[in-house]
């Protein structure tokens, strides 16, 4: 299970970095989204995955999952969604002003 998660994180980071280095704005936004997914998966993996155990501590529970990684990932998802929306609006504004979706504002030939 850990190997699968590590490979998934590696693939997401590799694809994210590849897309961030593209010249158009839409692949850059997709790359940033993939990098945020990789970060969220990394946070989940660092929190020691526990299957079938409660996340809330009860007096009768002997084993429980740590709720902190789940709270961090939930917060990261909300922040990533806001950043993605801001990046899309910024890209649309730049396209409207420059007439191109090139990240440097150059006109496509």
TrEMBL record:
- Where this protein primarily resides, as one coarse class? membrane
Give the transmembrane ranges: 32-51, 71-92
The way this protein sits in the membrane is described as: Multi-pass membrane protein
Q: By what name is this protein known? A: Na+/H+ antiporter subunit C
Task: Write out the entry's keywords from A to Z.
Answer: Cell membrane, Membrane, Transmembrane, Transmembrane helix
InterPro entries, sorted? CPA3_antiporter_subunitC, NUOK/Mnh_C1-like
Presence of the UniProt keyword Cytoplasm in the record:
no
Task: Give the family per the record.
Answer: Belongs to the CPA3 antiporters (TC 2.A.63) subunit C family.
Species classification: Bacteria, Pseudomonadati, Pseudomonadota, Gammaproteobacteria, Thiotrichales
Gene3D superfamilies in the cross-refs? 1.10.287.3510
- From the Swiss-Prot or TrEMBL record, state where the protein is found: Cell membrane
Query: Please, which domain of life does this record's source organism belong to?
Result: Bacteria
